[in-house]
Specification:
heterodimer; A: alpha+beta; Arc Repressor Mutant, subunit A; 3 domains; 3-stranded antiparallel sheet
């Protein structure tokens, strides 16, 4: 979707990110709710029982600061939590502990590629809050609509990243979202999976005639649970608002939800019903003093981020640009690849191709995540070395890889059982002659000019050697023997 | 002796238990009998847990037989119903929490249990600790043991009346704007509000989180020292609790006031202070002076703003703290409602009393968009000025002496029609609450047959000093012939 002529599109994004901490934001209950049966990971604190008190999860604060540092935010020395009041059944206390005017991270930016150009999207703030319980709307046993509450999610640490209204199209919004997701994964602060709700992107969209001043009125769009939905919702909204303006109507401040099935946004709440959240400082939590030492320590823990990693791959290591792009999409695989590259004597591109093709195909086939990689980087480098030295053919290397993957056996064990590649000229020449003697028709075909006969004879050699013959060498020897045979 | 064990102080009962003269079971039976005899008249308890108390008493006796000791081992205490008690109904005297049984103990309750205390029941209070007369209980009012037609003060009126009528040896209350000190003054017992953060608030059902503190109501200053020591100290479950070590408060009671600099502020003796109360407090200050204390006049110029500041901040916090009572998870519910919105609305309309609703609305208004700066933010700034008044004063004095309550106990129903008149009952206790300072009320004689209270205020974490001065005064106090309590012997 291109920007409608005569108009400009103004988009700001609010991204909620569930943090990967062991326990919840304000209690010691496990935050690993996704795999737990409903309402099993709860305690008086995250249930909002009378008299209980929140205690700040320091790890969540650290992960938020780490994210802020990766986004070039300033980390102010003073931050605090506030209560955001609203009445909804998924909110246990009827207020959410969030951060209002003193967030953990202020300012910053994220660079995206927009039509080949680098664009800098400014970050307004990054703050920390608690997730709500999960409501599921069902039809009850009595046939009446009912809502089920799962409190497991209540109190899971939730980080919110807010951008300035710097985004001008759905494509840019998606580029921002993908880039941000990648960084979050590289930082290890979140799974950042949209379909699990670990990453939720809301958008503020407004379309303005070029030349007109950009006003305050904006439409908040929610409920996009995939990047595809984000792009579709924004395209729809830009089209809807443009049509509105074309008809001479005014933009209404409202909240709209993306209806996946109807492929449209639907008004949920207009300005007159907007919440007054009545923020005030959370009296149960003392203000946060963020020491410079803490920020320094986190800065030192900062892993290499995808942009820098990509540069390293395409620069000194000479990996193709497209391969590098593919690799940084999967942080664990990328880190693994670098680890193998550093142990491998040959060119880095060899490793990258091997990983992106053979290794990834196996991961996919076995439904393994990259961080479940069953083969150590050291073993992988040894395997590649054997291949490079010709002790394993490409096919053999693939077979060895697969067996190591599935059996968990070491490289030595597998190679010892399967044997190495036979490259010995005398031994291979003997086998070639035996195969020729046993297949006179093929030899005759060759002499009659049918070059394909070499492939057939080659297959027979491989069969006799159980795949261990060095195919290049066999082809060479077969031709020598066949030609000599003709000469006689 | 065995007939009126219930009259003992914690200290004397502890001595008798240690000496083997009595058992905790004897003591607990005596207290339970006393409750049976008088509670119909005082209304101090919402729930008496007689069986559990006797079982705890047996445990305490068994622990003592094994060589265990401790000042609270086997001592029958009462707990204000604002504190969560594992397996025992906790209502905050509100209909909205009817039937709520917490699966956890407040930290203070757990600490008392660890110390071997016997918990005889949950005491009555103003609903959600909002009130100064205990008439806001959602169940029944409490009557002052000295005159059953009068209020016991509030909001810890049940705890104060229970201590005064010997229905327990001591009790825990909670003080947000004076809710321990004011009823202690009106009922003639000792009431201590610790420094904000000295005692854990975990399990204390929140009214105004930046002000709430748990404090003891006792028959003597020494007993208050014992209860404070047992309950104070850092709690990892309360982020606002202070890490400083807890001194042996009782051991520091040496009876000395010589050289002590006592500040007296005219702001605490102005308009609205009953002449008899002022005179009783002035007599108490004279006794300190006669025994070597130096009396200095100080000024606390922002005192008059404490009341309006409090009635912005406390209701604001309360409006959020009480939002969770919506009938979904515990307490009152409405299964007949058509949908969840109707259910929540009905529960809150029926479950909360008038004063609670008034404060929720006050706080909701004060925090609303467009009003926040004018009310909440401004109140916080004035709160800082009130704190600074005390900081300045404590540069030249060690403690501040003042009346606890402007009047003695007033008539039941006397102020219920006039919320502002009711709010003024806390005018002398609010400043120390807003400043987070420790303060104590000690009985200082009777005015027209009703107890009056001397309030002492100290700098942050100076509870030891506060208790020492209060204890010294208690020892020096003339043994005025106490009038007979209305509840009788």
């Amino acid at each position: 979707m291109t920007t409608p002529p005569g108009y400009r599109v103004v988009i700001g994004l609010e991204t909620h990110v569930q943090l990967k901490t062991a326990s919840k934001m304000f209690c010691r209950t496990s935050a690993a709710y996704a795999s737990a049966p409903p309402n099993t990971l709860v305690c008086p604190v995250c249930l909002g029982m009378p008299g209980v008190l929140p205690v700040i999860n320091a790890a969540a604060v650290d992960l938020t600061i780490l994210t802020g540092l990766a986004l070039h935010s300033e980390i102010p020395p003073h931050a605090k939590f506030d209560r955001k009041n609203y009445a909804y059944p998924d909110l246990m206390k009827w207020y959410q502990i969030s951060q209002y005017d003193l967030p953990l991270c202020v300012g910053g930016w994220l660079e995206i590629d927009a039509k080949g150009e680098t664009r800098r999207i400014r970050i307004t703030r990054v703050h920390l809050e608690e997730d709500t319980a999960k409501l599921t709307h069902v039809v009850g046993d009595d046939g009446q609509p009912a809502s089920l509450i799962d409190v497991n999610r209540s109190g899971v640490p939730l980080m919110e990243i807010v951008t300035e209204p710097d985004i001008t199209s759905a494509e840019e919004a998606m580029a921002y979202g993908l880039k941000l997701r990648n960084i979050l994964r590289w930082l290890g602060v979140s799974t950042a999976n949209m379909q699990d709700g670990a990453l939720r992107i809301d958008a503020n969209v407004s379309v303005w005639p070029i030349g007109a001043e950009v006003g305050d009125t904006k439409v908040e769009v929610k409920n996009m649970n995939s990047f595809r939905a984000l792009g579709q919702a924004l395209d729809f909204e830009v089209e809807r608002q443009t049509a509105l303006l074309e008809r001479g109507e005014r933009l209404e401040q409202e909240t709209r939800g993306w209806d996946e099935r109807a492929a449209r946004t639907v008004s949920q709440r207009t300005k007159e019903y907007a919440h007054d959240y009545r923020y005030f400082p959370e009296p149960d939590l003392p203000p946060l003093e963020i020491t410079r030492e803490r920020v320094q320590r986190l800065a030192e823990q900062m892993p290499e981020l995808p942009d820098a990693f990509r540069q390293r791959l395409t620069g000194e290591l000479g990996v193709a640009s497209a391969d590098a792009d593919e690799l940084i999409e999967d942080r664990d695989l990328a880190v693994y690849t670098i680890d193998v590259i550093e142990r491998h004597a040959g060119p880095a591109a060899e490793v990258v191709t091997w990983v992106l093709q053979d290794v990834r195909r196996l991961l996919n086939a076995r439904e393994l995540e990259s961080d479940d990689m069953p083969i150590s980087a050291a073993s992988m480098a040894q395997l590649l070395a054997l291949r490079a030295k010709g002790e394993l053919s490409s096919t053999m290397a693939g077979t060895v890889l697969e067996e190591m993957f599935d059996s968990g056996k070491s490289l030595e064990e597998v190679v010892a059982a399967r044997g190495r590649q036979i490259s010995d000229t005398d031994a291979l020449a003997d086998i070639a002659r035996e195969v020729m003697a046993a297949n006179p028709q093929a030899v005759a075909d060759y002499h009659a000019g049918k070059d394909r006969a070499v492939q057939f004879l080659m297959g027979q050699v491989m069969r006799r050697t159980r795949g261990q013959a060095n195919p290049g060498k066999v082809t060479e020897l077969l031709r020598v023997e066949l030609d000599r045979d003709r000469g006689e | 002796m065995a007939d009126d064990l219930f009259r003992l102080t914690v200290a004397d009962a502890g001595d008798a238990l240690t000496a083997g003269d009595i058992s905790s079971v004897d003591l607990t039976r005596s207290v339970l009998d006393r409750i049976d005899a008088v509670d119909a008249r005082t209304g101090a308890f919402l729930l008496v847990t007689a069986d559990a108390a006797l079982a705890q008493a047996e445990d305490a006796d068994a622990r003592r037989a094994r060589g265990d000791a401790g000042p609270l081992l086997g001592i029958p205490l009462a707990i204000k119903d604002v504190l969560c008690t594992d397996g025992v109904a906790t209502t905050c005297a509100s209909r909205i929490l009817e039937g709520f049984v917490p699966p956890y103990d407040a930290t203070v309750v757990a600490r008392l249990k660890d110390a071997g205390a016997v918990l005889v029941g949950k005491t009555n209070m103003d609903e959600f600790a909002m009130g100064s007369s205990n008439e806001n209980s959602g169940y029944h009012p409490v009557r002052n043991p000295w005159d059953l037609s009068r209020v016991p003060g509030g909001s810890s009126g049940g705890s104060a009346a229970a201590v005064a009528a010997d229905e327990c040896l001591a009790a825990l209350g909670s003080d947000t704007g004076g809710s321990v000190r004011q009823p202690a003054a009106l009922c003639g017992c000792v009431g201590l509000k610790p420094t904000y953060g000295r005692v854990s608030r975990y399990g204390l059902v929140a009214f105004a989180s930046s002000l709430d503190q748990v404090g003891p109501l006792t028959k003597s200053v020494h007993d208050a020292a014992v209860l404070l020591e047992a309950t104070a100290g850092h709690d990892p479950r309360d982020a606002t609790s202070l890490p400083e070590p807890v001194p042996d408060y009782a051991a520091e009671l040496d009876g000395k006031v010589e050289g002590l600099r006592v500040g007296v502020a005219p702001e605490y003796f102005g308009e609205g202070i009953d002449a008899g109360v002022a005179s009783a407090v002035e007599d108490a200050i004279s006794i300190l002076k006669a025994n070597g204390a130096e009396i200095r006049e100080i000024t606390l110029p922002h005192t008059e703003y404490a009341l309006p500041v409090y009635y912005v901040i406390a209701p604001s916090e309360a409006s959020a703290n009480l939002a969770r009572y919506n009938g979904v998870k515990y307490g009152l519910s409405d299964p007949q409602a058509d949908d969840v919105d109707e259910m929540m609305a009905t529960v809150r309309a029926q479950g909360f009393g008038a004063e609670v609703k008034r404060r929720i609305m006050l706080g909701t208004f004060a925090l609303s968009s467009g009003y926040y700066d004018a009310y909440y933010l401004r109140a916080q700034k004035v709160r800082t000025l009130i704190k600074q008044d005390f900081d300045t004063a404590f540069e030249s004095v060690d403690v501040i002496a003042a009346p606890t309550s402007p009047t003695t106990a007033f008539d039941l129903g006397g102020r219920t029609a006039d919320p502002l008149a009711m709010y003024r009952a806390d005018v002398l206790t609010l400043p120390a609450s807003l400043a987070g300072l420790p303060a104590i009320s000690v009985p200082c004689g009777f005015v027209d047959g009703l107890p009056a209270g001397l309030q002492l205020i100290a700098p942050p974490l100076q509870e030891a000093r506060l208790l020492r001065v209060a204890d010294a005064y208690e020892r020096l106090r003339p043994a005025s012939p106490a009038p007979r309590q209305a509840v009788g012997a």
